[in-house]
Hints:
Strand order of the largest sheet: 1-2-3-5-4
Strand content: 5-15%
Bound molecules: iron/sulfur cluster
Number of domains: 2
Helix content: 25-40%
CATH topology of the largest domain: Gyrase A, domain 2
Number of helices: 7
Largest sheet: 5 strands, mixed
Low-confidence stretches: none
Structural class: alpha/beta
Distance between the termini: 64 Å
Amino acid sequence: xxxxxxxxxxxxxxxxxxxxxxxxxxxxxxxxxxxxxxxxxxxxxxxxxxxxxxxxxxxxxxxxxxxxxxxxxxxxxxxxxxxxxxxxxxxxxxxxxxxxxxxxxxxxxxxxxxxxxxxxxxxxxxxxxxxxxxxxxxxxxxxxxxxxxxxxxxxxxxxxxxxxxxxxxxxxxxxxxxxxxxxxxxxxxxxxxxxxxxxxxxxxxxxxxxxxxxxxxx
Length: 218
Ligand code: SF4
């Protein structure tokens, strides 16, 4: 058994059975995964581990989900996993890389990268993203990464080398791995964000471009 699988098994048997919008429960034959809002429903579509990739792709209105940790996971399904390896595979399809990152974090080996560092190392068309101002970062991150409608990850990175908080518009819970980002106050396995994602970098670029276009308009 690999370390992330071992970690998952110990968390679930220790009754920590939620990750993001997923509920994981132990069954006689292994694990059952479903949407947290679907617990107790008896009309769920029965799925296999390999279906997880498709489940994660589109939301309930069939819109593509570019950000897998957005709080838009579709409902109405139930995945049966025979063991922790299969359960980890399903979770990895729905929340890519998050169990491995959690394992590294728990071992005290997770390094984080500030937003400024991430932006400064961009090249090509994304290089301009580094010109975003601190005020713009505050507004953008406060909206883009917010848990209610943006992203369910817990932010571990800082805005810059001065260790400034990424956005004063986000509540302290957004930076607390012990907090339930769904706002239900339940004990959860956190989805950690150790570095700004490509989508946030692209949004920084768009903001700089928009500002440039607005200031050069006649
Ligand atoms: S930077 Fe992290 S918290 Fe923000 S949207 Fe991207 S993955 Fe989510």
